[in-house]
Amino acid sequence: MIVYLETSVVLRRLFRQIHPLKQWGSWKEAYSSELARVEALRTIDRFRLQNKMSDEEVAYAVKGLDEILKEIDEIRISPSVLHRASQAYPTVIGTLDAIHLASAYLWQEDFQKEMIFLTHDIQLGRAAHAMGMKALGFDK
Prior knowledge:
By secondary structure, the chain is an alpha/beta fold. The protein is 51% helix and 13% strand. It starts with a strand and ends with a strand. The longest helix has 17 residues. The protein is globular, with a radius of gyration of 15 Å. The model has no long low-confidence stretch (mean pLDDT 95). It has a single domain, classed as Rossmann fold (3-Layer(aba) Sandwich). The chain is built from six helices and five strands. The chain has a five-stranded parallel β-sheet with strand order 3-2-1-4-5, with helices on both faces.
């Protein structure tokens, strides 16, 4: 199984939140946009600034994020990804979600292999389905 991990899946695993992805680690290949690191680090920093995490917890979270992302191949945010992200989508999604979806969609086109889009975001999962991609993880 080849998967695309959207940031919500990485963060739920990192923060050990309820209903983590059941398929975690059962893939042959895993990919995500380089955007995932930025989004995850911004979330960690936001929690720090909101006093939801101590300095020690921040350090632990950053280390844990690095360990998770070492196992995931990074898809660059190329001009073609940005071009596809700026085009129309069959459902309403935001800018960052469009970059994630464009990254996965173009990877599939380039390599002619099926990629399962993993997300905990309901709207993003629906958008992936509407584009003909298999999407999992957004039922909770």
